[in-house]
């Protein structure tokens, strides 16, 4: 998405203007991918903007930092307060929110520990991730020739910046070949996820998705889908999925904060079911968009409203990264 400058970016405890939020070229993260990030969405509701699964996102950020051995100088609760104030200050009705922690400037060399941990949060308007038609009509995807990293190479469960080099290869290959997205197999050849989405298939009324240990990010939208399905009496099985199951699935969809719930209408030019959005996918979408738009009751307590007074973290912390 091209950027539209917002009035504020939160940078290490300070509210700075868009053009002031800069880093030096010696920042460790630029050279070695040493960053951790989150993607969060605020939705427009009749009561003003509300953030979807805010505590879950900030907790995952803390968990990713723990896995990356990157001391996070702010608590998840403090970062939640910053997110709410930032959405308010930037005057969004709805937006995408990008918290980012990274190793800054101190020394070159792979070992990151001398470099201070910096934290920024920015917001932007972001529409439909896979195109405006995608939510209704579905997308065409391919099975990538790239594999997801093996579990003993990089921790897919953590949202670490450098790992997205793998995702970049996947999405570039897909788009170069005329597809919207690539589905990546894990090192053993089982289905893992998309470059920036989790994957689900429906067969005979049962929903299947790969388990957490299958080199996937533990998606928060994935969890939302599982909660909704349980509530709707639809069985969800977390189990290994082979490539050929994709070709005979009745329905398929991908989930992510950016992608929301996007139907998949073909894989490797093979239509999924009728080649259109399936009925279970549609029911899940209706519930998801109903709750996030404030039109349906917030049964699962997903939404945090923005327009209430919040005490934010307005002071710079010492972010000694050791
Ligand atoms: N897998 C990957 C690899 C991934 O990046 C995401 C989110 C997901 C699954 C779904 O997770 P969740 O958002 O918690 O449901 N991808 C983020 C980044 C997208 C981007 O292009 O940047 C996102 O959707 O915010």
Walk me through what this model shows.
- With 322 residues, this protein is α+β, with helices and mostly antiparallel strands.
- The chain folds into two domains: 9-126, D-amino Acid Aminotransferase, Chain A, domain 1 (2-Layer Sandwich), CATH 3.30.470; 134-292, D-amino Acid Aminotransferase, Chain A, domain 2.
- 25% of the residues lie in helices and 27% in strands.
- The protein contains eight helices and 17 strands.
- Strands 8, 9, 10, 11, 12, 13, 14, 15 and 16 form a nine-stranded mixed beta sheet that branches. Strands 1, 2, 3, 4, 5, 6, 7 and 17 form an eight-stranded antiparallel beta sheet that branches.
- A hairpin with a 2-residue loop joins strand 1 (9-11) and strand 2 (14-16).
- Helix 2 (54-67) crosses helix 3 (76-89).
- The radius of gyration is 20 Å and the shape is globular.
- It starts with 8 loop residues before the first strand and ends in a 17-residue tail after the last strand.
- The model has no long low-confidence stretch (mean pLDDT 95).
- It binds ligand PPE.
- Ligand PPE binds next to helix 6 and strand 14.
The string of secondary-structure elements, in order, is: EEHEEEHHEEHEHEEEEHEHEEEHE
Q: Provide the list of bound ligands, each named once.
A: ligand PPE
Radius of gyration: 20 Å
CATH architecture title of the largest domain: Alpha-Beta Barrel
Under CATH, the homologous superfamily of the largest domain reads: D-amino Acid Aminotransferase, subunit A, domain 2
Total DSSP helices: 8
pLDDT under 50 segments (min length 5)? none
Gross geometry: globular
Chain-averaged pLDDT: 95
Largest sheet: 9 strands, mixed
Number of strands: 17
CATH level-1 class of the largest domain: Alpha Beta
CATH fold descriptor of the largest domain: D-amino Acid Aminotransferase, Chain A, domain 2
Give the distance, in angstroms, between the N- and C-terminal Cα atoms.
Answer: 35 Å
Give the fraction of residues assigned to helices. Answer: 25-40%
Report the β-strand fraction as a percent range.
Answer: 25-35%
Overall SS class:
alpha+beta
């Amino acid at each position: 998405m091209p950027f539209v400058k917002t009035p504020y970016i939160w940078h290490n405890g300070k509210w700075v203007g868009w053009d002031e939020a800069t880093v030096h070229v010696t920042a460790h993260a630029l050279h070695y991918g040493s960053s951790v990030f989150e993607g969060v969405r605020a939705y427009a509701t009749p009561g003003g903007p509300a953030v979807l699964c805010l505590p879950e996102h900030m907790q995952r950020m803390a968990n990713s930092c723990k896995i990356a051995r990157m001391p996070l100088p702010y608590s998840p609760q403090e970062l939640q307060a910053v997110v709410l104030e930032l959405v308010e200050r930037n005057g969004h009705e709805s937006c995408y929110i990008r918290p980012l922690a990274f190793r800054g400037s101190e020394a070159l060399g792979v070992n990151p520990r001398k470099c201070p941990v910096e934290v920024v949060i920015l917001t932007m308007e972001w529409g439909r991730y896979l195109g405006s038609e995608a939510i209704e009509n579905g997308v065409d995807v391919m099975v990538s020739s790239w594999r997801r990293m093996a579990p003993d190479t990089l921790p897919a469960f953590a949202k670490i910046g450098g790992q997205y080099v793998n995702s970049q290869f996947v999405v570039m290959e897909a788009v170069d070949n005329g597809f919207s997205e690539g589905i990546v197999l894990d090192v053993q050849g089982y289905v893992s996820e998309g470059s920036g989405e989790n994957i689900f298939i429906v067969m005979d009324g049962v929903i299947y998705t790969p388990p957490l240990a299958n080199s996937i990010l533990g998606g928060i939208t994935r969890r939302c889908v599982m909660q909704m399905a349980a509530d709707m009496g639809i069985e969800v099985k977390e189990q290994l999925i082979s490539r050929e199951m994709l070709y005979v699935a009745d329905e398929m969809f991908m989930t992510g904060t950016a992608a929301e719930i996007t139907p998949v209408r073909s894989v490797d030019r093979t239509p999924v079911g009728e080649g259109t959005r399936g009925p279970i996918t549609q029911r899940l979408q209706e519930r998801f968009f109903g709750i996030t738009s404030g039109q349906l009751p917030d049964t699962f307590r997903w939404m945090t409203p923005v327009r209430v007074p919040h005490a934010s973290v307005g002071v710079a912390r010492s972010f000694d990264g050791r």
